[in-house]
Amino acid sequence: MVLRPRRPARLAVMPAAAGTACGAPPGPVLRPSPPASADRGRERISGVPDLPASPSDDRGASPDDPGAPSALRTATVSADVDAGGVEEITDPDDPRIGDYRALTDVELRTRWEPPHGLFIAEGELVLRRALRAGYRPRSFLVDRKRVDQLAGVATGGAPVYAASPAVLERATGFHVHRGVLASFHRRELPTPTEVLAGARRVAVLEDVNNHTNLGAIFRGAAALGVDGVLLSPSCADPLYRRSVRVSMGEVFAVPYARLEPWPGGLELVRAAGFTVLALTPAADALPIQRLPPAQRARAALLLGAEGPGLSRSALTAADARVAIPMRRGVDSLNVAAAAAVAFWELGRDDPV
């Protein structure tokens, strides 16, 4: 495997103007690295790489999809990391790794990644699960001593960059101890109707904006028989790096959609044949293990944010209130832990 050092172009860092698309605070503007394509090296006169293609492109096409562009399918088969062609990065400001800039700035990244149609996967296991789920890579960035972790990875023609730990840390803002990062194209989200169509059991989240909790909920949903997740408009982004990492890539396995308007959209859930169950520590809530079979059959479990819990309007919109009985004076569990307990309870009679 050969590292090909190239003289890096300098990234033009421009001050952010008010009202920019990403809503970034004053300071350096993030610029995504050029998408992998035949004209990947083309740059604007200012020296800043072009923005990603519009949502109307083939973003998210699976290489295994017979309808995928032939160039993508061919690249996936032939452009293996084992074949070499890894490019060395020596400058943390190299525009080729613009997708990975300032990864620790949560506000900036969460306001910037979705509009630009990308997300970051961290760690070999997670990126392999993203590839298996059919997400199309934009690029890979690895510790130069860990390039072998990508052995056998079909890159789909996306460039593979390698750098020293010091360069990685200066570019991303943190020590990349897992040694592997990848940038992927997002896919268009399904509609709530599509998520509900083939589901037997779903989770509905209100204002869950902690990325760690969100990732843990998705991991529990994948493990414990939940077929889909619906998010209120104010929920965090499931594809933010921390959510993806905490979910161990299981966020790719569970379909999800944004449910609007809120909480009026719960009528759509009810109309699809689900019983909306609000999980709450309220004294008048029914212990979840006492739910009758009719309310278990197609359950939509409604979960609120850590601390405030469900809003009054969401509680009012539910068909029933359920609780996990507590002992020793504990009033409630962390929302991700409570979700896992409730998911297991609702599916305890499922065939295994």
Can you tell me about this structure?
It is a single chain. This protein has 352 residues and is of the alpha/beta class. It folds into 2 domains: 3-185, 2-Layer Sandwich (60s Ribosomal Protein L30, Chain: A); 192-346, Alpha/beta knot (3-Layer(aba) Sandwich), CATH 3.40.1280.10. Helix content is 24%, strand content 16%. It contains 11 helices and 13 strands. The chain has helices spanning 70-78, 106-112, 124-132, 165-172, 192-197, 211-223, 241-246, 266-271, 293-296, 312-317, 335-346, and strands spanning 3-5, 86-88, 118-122, 137-143, 160-163, 180-185, 201-205, 228-231, 256-258, 275-279, 286-287, 299-303, 320-323. The strands form 2 sheets. It has a 7-stranded parallel sheet. A 6-stranded mixed sheet has the order 1-2-5-4-6-3. Helix 1 links the parallel strand 1 (3-5) and strand 2. Helix 6 runs parallel beside helix 11. The longest helix has 13 residues, at 211-223. The chain is elongated, with a radius of gyration of 22 Å. Mean pLDDT is 82; it is low at 5-29 and 35-80.
